[in-house]
Amino acid sequence: MSYRSLPYSPVLLGLLLLPSACSSSEQALADAWREDKSTTAKDAGIHDLNLGHLARVYEVDPETTPTLKDVVLRNVAEDVGGVLTSAADKNGVRKIRVVSCVDEGRVDQGRRVCTLKARANAMDNGNFVFADLAQGGTAVDDRAAEVMAYYHVQRAYDFVTSKAVGLFDVLPARHTQDGKAVPLTVVVNFRAPSASGPLKRTGRAMYFPQEFGRMGMFAMEGLKGIEGDVLVFGQGNHTDFAYSGETAYHEFGHMAFTALTGTYFYTYADNFGMCHLNNVISEGIADTFAWLISGHRTLGEYCDIESGKAGAYIRHADNKARFPKDLVGLFLRDGQVLSGAHYEAFQLLREKAKLDQHAFARLLMKTLMSLAKYKGKISFAIYADEFLSTATSLGQGDHVKALRALFEARGLYRPRAKDITSFDGKAGVDHLLLIDGTDPMKGGAFMKTTRDGVPASMATTFVQSFVDLPKGNSIIELAATLDRHLTFPSDPSTLDVELLLRKDGPILYDVQQTPVTIDFDLAQKPTLATVPSPRGSIRRATWTLKGLQGGARYYRHIVNYGASGGSLRNLEVSIR
């Protein structure tokens, strides 16, 4: 029996760097496929505008496209008092409404939380051009943030519902709740709830499906009372995430994934342990939306300023990430495998079949629709097969062989176990593995099994590792630092880890059994030592496996019986 993970905080835009080289063709690529249906002010004639829908925005973000441009915002309602809410369609659906998180001292459940208000008002101001722009996106009461968010989210919505994509007018199943029409609520200037003092600035963005609200998760973030789905853009110390178009397109991609597959944050157990590939695929889709809509392959140049890396980027579509070699258990980083595969596939189909970004988006979204029947239990192999089947149905059968070869080169059909044989300080992602805990309120995803014959809840790393033991050797030593989780609140001091070992094949989990039965040869607890770290003392775990057979392959899986999740850093393997 496996248990689904309900995160303490949902899908986040992380700040992890996956290096890859940039190209001088970046701007040419952006120009070739730019899709922007917001009318320029010059074309519209400002004096003809209802309510003065003129706005001043960054086309992508202040770092990527630093010159502000005047546009006329599309589809703004004329019956809501001048605020940024979409006009109702024939079914009464307003696609978007934008509000700010205002700190008025409101307290809920002992914490200071947001008061949600629409502050950007064209009736009061004459248009949507605000002097707040001069503050550079660092103010907590920035009305321009509402304008930026509306522009970018509307741009994403226009893209997926365009006639060129030709699938639907609104995202399915996202605009009704309890039988009534609801908009996508976009919250800007978001700061986290505070137990004392003002709200806390936060450098993150999030997508919350309405289902999370029913589970009480809106209230956790101080957003209780919102109906429908929510996009949240944080107000950091140095950046305003509402100013980032790529962030908006990324988070909107999560919404599209949920709308089309019928699933959201979901971790399940399969025969390799706990599997997070549903979430990884969602991240890959989200990043694909970011580069597909913006026309820029690099993601996060502006947002990365929040972490002190001006001019850098967080992730890159034109990457070489492979599965399972580059899998670490962090959804954002692991999603680069799929985003990179999509980028390669798009280049191939653009060259061979003259597909533009709209046709590729149609292929992508119809693939997502085909995943609904799996109810969240999807893998890279399942995704790849459905993508190829969809490509065939859309008349691209001549290119399926080449696409499959591309997916195979990315490793999408390989089992979830990778080689970790050495650590030299330059091993890239090979030095880090994430592991969940057994407390679902702290992001835990676990299975029910037994430990020494006693019923127990157990989480696992999302990837197994193996080592080929050379002939003449009989000992493998594995060491790892037990550190905090990178996504959820955690207490690494409570990690209760063991190493499972199996010769000549992966550790296998029979998830059809209750409790889950596990096929392994040896379970070993680590020797623990306290070591210093920048955040205080943490523990270093060492497993020494003796009496092994030289010339054999040994699979290893680290499992956790503790309530808190964490990370296994600085993995070091020695053989003797």
Explain this structure:
The protein is of the alpha+beta class and 576 residues long. It folds into three domains: 50-240, no CATH class; 244-414, no CATH class; 417-575, Jelly Rolls. 24% of the residues lie in helices and 24% in strands. The chain contains 13 helices and 31 strands. Strands 18, 20, 21, 22, 24, 27 and 30 form a seven-stranded mixed sheet that branches. A hairpin with a 2-residue loop joins strand 14 and strand 15 (273-275). Helix 10 (336-353) packs antiparallel against helix 13 (400-409). The longest helix is centred in the first third of the chain and has 18 residues, at 143-160. Mean pLDDT is 88; it is low at 1-37, 40-51 and 422-430.
Keywords, separated by commas or semicolons:
576 residues, alpha+beta, Jelly Rolls, 3 domains, 13 helices, 24% helix, globular, disordered N terminus
Can you give the mean pLDDT? 88
Low-confidence stretches: 1-37, 40-51, 422-430
Overall domain count: 3
Net shape: globular
Helix content: 10-25%
Largest sheet: 7 strands, mixed
Alpha carbon gyration radius: 24 Å
Q: What is the first-to-last residue Cα distance?
A: 39 Å
Query: Structural class, from helix and strand content?
Result: alpha+beta
Query: Got a strand count?
Result: 31
**How much strand content do the residues show?**
15-25%
Helix count, per DSSP?
A: 13
